[in-house]
Known about the structure:
The termini are far apart. This protein has helices at residues 27-101, 107-141, and strands at 4-9, 18-23. By secondary structure, it is mainly alpha-helical.
Amino acid sequence: xxxxxxxxxxxxxxxxxxxxxxxxxxxxxxxxxxxxxxxxxxxxxxxxxxxxxxxxxxxxxxxxxxxxxxxxxxxxxxxxxxxxxxxxxxxxxxxxxxxxxxxxxxxxxxxxxxxxxxxxxxxxxxxxxxxxxxxxxxxxxxxxxxxxxxxxx
Length: 153
């Protein structure tokens, strides 16, 4: 004499609910094992999806850091070149002033050299601003600047 019942088990996490026929016979252990295997497969699928999401998140973060670091390095190289240009412009201005005081050139040459020096200084200031912004973005990509909601700084 066998007792049969249909049991509906809601799914946990992702997946469809499982309906099982429970019987009071040796088949009961077979059905119990089948249920356990189905549960393990569901948990394994959830684990694999979580692992894929984790890997994608880490890869995205590494790419962001690499991009921010490359940008910061490029701006630093531009800053070095701009500082050399300023040195050359200052030298040119000094030569123009010396030539003017010696009577070799007129004041227009001095003004032209000073204007060029000022433009190069303005470009340096813009690069310094870009450098600061890229540093903040790099610092943020590395996890800096985070404040807890429990302890706001």
